Amino acid sequence: MEGVASPQVVFYGDDFTGATDALGTAARAGMRSLLFLGVPEDGQLRRAGVLDCIGIAGAARSMAPHEMRAELAPVAALFTRLGAKVLHYKCCSTFDSAPEVGNIAVAVDVLRTGVKQSWVAVVGGQPELRRYCIFGNLFAAAGQGGEVHRIDRHPTMSRHPVTPMHEADLRRHLALQGLTGLGSLPYPTYAPPESAVSEALEALVASAPAGVLFDVAQQADLPRIGQALNASAHANGSLLAVGPSSVLQALAPARQPPAPAPAPVAPAKGPAFVLAGSLSPVTARQVAAARSFETAWLDPAALADAQPHHLDAIARQICEKLAAGRNVLACTAEGAPSSIVSSRALAEAGGALLARVLAATTLHRVGIAGGDTSSHAVKALDAWGLSYLAALSPGASLCRLHSDDPALDGCEIMLKGGQMGGEDVFERLVHGTP
Asked: Which residues form the Four-carbon acid sugar kinase nucleotide binding domain (predicted)?
């Protein structure tokens, strides 16, 4: 692309919380990174300057297949124009998806048109978040410090309200969505010598699979995977990689030296506002631990109805509390709101509410909890990008908002998924980190 240096990696996050996690992963690895809140225009890319990693935050995780195709086609076209080596489709570390919602096979079908190699790399775990893939089967911890479960027996993900995980073997799970013919590279392959992974990958690819699923049993597996992917991308042309932020962890060590340890996060300058969508057990515990906040409970059915007068009334109440110097946490009442209303309608209404609050008051720090809620809430703002500031907690990045609106530009915003972060993550948003 004329006037724009080719990045090393381009990633698309299938929701905004995952996209900020990937942004933080790349930044902490020393990669010059910026996350755009949509496919960037040429002028925005030129303004951003030289970048090693370009991210695009999206909402494909909550979309039907036809919506995903329309969403992702411009991403594939942009990747082709930029000339990067790796296109990363960043999905949740639990791979929760379904044929009719957030279909990963559809994403692969669209995005592989932008790369040269026909096979797709699927990286199956993220050990720092206690997600592991062993002989193709996915395991995940239930909250920070919780017991590790096979994903189809996970107390939350097996009963996810939109995309419940009923199959632990990722090859079978993805085949149900249409991505068949995946080969497998099990973790014992990663034993020395260093050439073992590349040789095993080369042999697998020679059999023309649709893709290769990489086990990830421990953090030390990732550099070995990254070496193999980098070697293949440089020798055989650009490739598509699917998986959580561990894809960037695998790729980055071979490209950049680690960044220095980040400075502590300072306390918020003024009151903070947090919006939490439908509550996972992890977020519910975080809400209960948010002692520095005044809680504004939201009725999910009334919120999802999204009547302007109702949203205006809620926003006024929140802004009055913020104006009085109080931190406010607005969240849906405990229960299962998705059984009452559409999760997507709830997320979109949350976005409309956040836009009203930020239009009425200038805030220095904001938090959003919930993958779909984060995606639709940030899309409702007049902003075009995010840059990484610091990690508040595992899987919860604090970012700087970029906007042409002076009232929004520079606002610090934390996005976190339902399963991410420690119990004190909202307190850290207000008081900073040690």
From this structure: 274-426
Which letter, b or e, does each residue of 184-206 get, where b requires 16 or more Cβ atoms within 10 Å of its Cβ?
A: bbebebbeeeeeebbebbeebbe
The token pair that represents 383 in the structure block: 């902003």
- Name the CA dihedral angle for 35, 125, 157, 425, rounded to a multiple of 10 degrees: -50
User: What separation, in Å, do the N-terminal and C-terminal C-alpha atoms of the chain show?
Assistant: 43
For residue 362, the SS3 value is coil
Report yes or no: 184 and 212 within 8 Å, Cβ to Cβ: yes
Tell me the mean pLDDT in the region 27-39. Answer: 92
What is the identity of the amino acid at 34? L
* Continuous H helices in 281-361: 281-288, 300-305, 308-323, 343-360
DSSP per position, 134-197:
ETTEEEEESSTTPPEEEGGG-TTGGG-SSS-----BHHHHHHTTT---EEEE-GGGGSSSTTHH
Kindly give, in sequence order, each residue whose CB lies less than 8 Å from that of residue 363, ignoring residues fewer than 6 positions away: 270, 271, 272, 273, 322, 357, 411
Q: CB of 60 within 8 A of CB of 68?
A: yes
Residue type, 297: W
- Is there a contact between 358 and 408 (Cβ–Cβ < 8 Å)? yes
Average pLDDT of span 163-183: 97
pLDDT of residue 278: 63
Identify the bridge partners of residue 214 per DSSP, sorted by sequence position: 123, 185
Q: In this structure, what token pair is assigned to residue 372?
A: 């779909």
Question: What is the spatial distance between Cα 336 and Cα 129, in angstroms, rounded to a whole number?
Answer: 25
Q: What is the mean pLDDT of residues 28-50?
A: 91
Listed residue (372, 415, 31, 5) closest to 226, CA to CA: 31
CA 375 to chain centre: 9
pTM of the model: 0.84
| CA distance linking residue 399 with residue 133, whole number of Å | 29
pLDDT tier, 306 (very low <50, low <70, confident <90, very high otherwise): confident
Residues 391 and 416: their CA atoms lie apart, in Å, by 11
